[in-house]
Amino acid sequence: MIGLALASARTPLEAFRGWNCSEMFFIAAVLLVSFVIRCVSSQGLNCAFYLSRSLSGVFHYDQRIRYSLTFPAAKVACEQDFGAVVATREQLHAAYLAGLEGCRAVTMQTPAAHSPLNLEDMSISAFPVITTKVPTRGGNVHSSTSSFVNPDSCGGVMRQIEGRFQTPHYPQSYPRDMDCTWEIEAPLGYLIRLDFTSLFIEEHRTCKYDYVVVYDGKGPDKVEMGRFCGSELPPQLQGSSNAMSITMRSDSSMELEGFSAQFSTFQAPEGYIHLDRGNNKYGGIIKMMSNGHWGGICAKHWTNRDAMVVCRQLGFGGPALATRVDVNQQNTSQTIPYIKCKGDEMVLQDCDIKRVGKCSSNEHAAVICQVMESCAALKSAGILKSGVFTIDPDGVNGGVDPFPVACDMISDPATGITIIGHDSEDRIRVSPCEDAGCYSRAIHYNQASLDQLKALTETSKYCKQYISLECRHIRFLKQHWGWWVSRDGRKINSWGGASTDSGKCACGENGNCALGLSTCNCDANDGVWRQDKGYLTDKAILPVREVRFGDTRDAPVEMAFHKISPLHCYGQSSQVSVLESCTALKKAGFQESRRYVIDPDGAGRGVAPFEVFCDLTSDQSTGITIVSHDSERRTRVAPCEDPGCYRKEIKYEAELNQLNALTSISESCEQYVKLDCRHIRFIQAAWGWWTSWDGRRMFYWGGASPESGRCACGMTGSCSVPGKLCNCDSNDHIWRTDEGILRDKSSLPIQAVHFGDTKGAPLEMAFYTIGKLMCKGQAGR
Questions:
Q1: Per the database record, which ranges form the CUB domain (predicted)?
Q2: pLDDT in tens, 472-514
């Protein structure tokens, strides 16, 4: 009779019309139990279900199509479903990964039965909660004791100390084409914490269709904290101000449960900081909680060292750039006139702070925290200490949010290593079960989603993950009894140390498996403890998402243990764009004075990149590019008589055309020169000169104007002998000096120096010193 009723009905609900509650309860119990048995035998899933509240239809995640709820169409990951149950979120996701249909079918439940029920353990006595009452879409399904705020409202403003809110009609389907915004407002000096208690929104890799967005603040200056969809609960979110905005949007193709959330407020502690009026969470004007009030910081003495402490306190351990912003003093409740940090403090509160006084200008301190793509990028930027850092593999404006990782800056001298741990790093026993893949262990990575880890592997040069299986008397890869699942849900038939999908472990790849096997040691299926282990290195499918094993039911004879290491990623898939100068590096947030590679005319253009020393600390406003050479020591001019008979060509760390490219893009360049002399002739007599980078003779010296034929003293009329234009043209027995800085960047660097009239040593003698080429700023800026 049951089969006839279902077969003749257009929908499952029609099959039950006219039946009383007890009859419906009996049929529901029979069908539900039957369904569970089928599910266990056909899919090996954890069959925990909960009964739904509304008739939502059947959907397919990939195609985004809604079907009518007919008996054949109402399917979940298992064979069939009569329309009165719905799979757990985990099962729906598994169905999606397998390309199957997910069912959200409906009916017969009161609010009290919303919690997931494990039907394998459920007795008939559990079913009295089922009734024939089906709440309408617009009905309020919550009891009068509900703690939710405005349960069916589309947004609103909440000003209480704590509270709860949810999407309209929750836990029934949210409306189509909804655009709702909830604002939480706490008192001044308070902060807000937000926890999602339930999330079930149409899944998409970038949350393109239906999604909820959380913002720090409200209005035009709010900053996005995260965008969420699917069924994975976000981590706790804590804002940096006394306001938070939550917006939920949907399209017209698929509506699921939505979300429920709760919030609480708390007073910001003394010394707490947040960034205001920035384009994102990594930059803005610094506001600090001081004496119970938010206050800005005067920018007069603000430096990158101070900015580094701010970023460190905010959780961003990479480079930091100090900036200044004009503000309206009237909008600032309190101003901190002076803060000075050494740069190694963990929080701004530990710096030298002057809390009383006024700013001498309207400029307040601001900061840009440089969030790099990986630990390798951080090390390239001069971060050499290991620790926990926030990275953003696809960039601040990319698809995935930043996330924290462990950075090992020591183990590999050439690069930083990005390490992401997970919840399955211990040696874990495979639970006894018999069928192929019946044991499943899903890997949950620390504070990072699979999409975020995909972005990391794509930006890294290479990644690896160690994986091990210890076994006795089991079957493994050879008969497809075990496997691992890639980040995109693919079943991978290979193991650590072997090529992807080769059907082998490391020993099979190397030809040294036990008993002459060609696949894995664990395929021996004998009473000896064996092991298959090695590194997975195909970064296109890493990290490991899940491991599956079977043939371990007859313990203790049949046993296995697995171990999976954290994901390790090295280097950068493509070199970070080489910047044109040290000025550009400082502007990009680099702070450590050291050697860098620059490319003044840009990648792929005329001159090749070359290495220089960058002074990023001496001048707070810019970086200084410093190029060394082989003639920086005080050097004696070898004895010779004729004009320019002594010649010394200067050998720089880069070619002259490369250095000309540097001087061309720099705002200014300079090079120090000095000549100590006795009884010689020099510039005025045309006995000495220097040549420009392109070989032109230059008859002037440091401190004088180009083409002036003078030294510095000749410009000021202060040479030691009246009428002379250089001290070293005195040609007497007194030791004299001409020195100064050459600043005509179109002629720099010095290619060579020429001297003469030193043959009559030791009476005639000279020593010269030539400084490094130093350039700063950007031309045309």
A1: 154-266
A2: 999 999 989 999 999 999 999 999 999 999 999 999 999 999 9
Domains 371-566 and 635-775 share a fold: yes
pLDDT of residue 733 exceeding 70? yes
Nearest to 686 by CA among 764, 756, 769: 756
Q: What is residue 366's three-state secondary structure?
A: strand
> CA-CA distance, 694 to 749, in Å (whole number)?
9
What SS3 state is found at 484?
strand
Structure token pair of residue 52: 């739904």
Q: Is the pLDDT of residue 7 over 70?
A: no
Distance of CA 779 to the CA centre of its chain: 33
Q: Strand, helix or coil at 533?
A: strand
For the structural domain made of 371-566, what CATH number should be given? 2.60.120.1000
Token pair, residue 457, equals 């592997």
Provide the whole-model pTM: 0.50
Q: Which residues contact 20 (CB under 8 A, 6 or more apart)?
A: none
Topology of domain 635-775 in CATH is: Jelly Rolls (2.60.120)
- Give the chain's count of helices (H) and strands (E): 10, 47
Query: Candidates 3.10.250.10, 3.40.50.1220, 1.20.1250.20, 1.50.10.10; correct CATH number of 273-369?
Result: 3.10.250.10
Q: What is the pLDDT of residues 266-316, one digit of tens each?
A: 888 888 888 887 767 778 888 888 877 788 898 888 888 888 899 888 877
Q: How is residue 325 written in tokens?
A: 């912003």
- Residue 198, sorted as left (phi over 0), alpha (psi -120 to 50) or beta, turns out to be beta
Q: Which residue has the tokens 């020429």?
A: 754
Element (H, E) at 273: strand 273-276
Could you tell me which CATH class the domain 156-267 is placed in? mainly beta
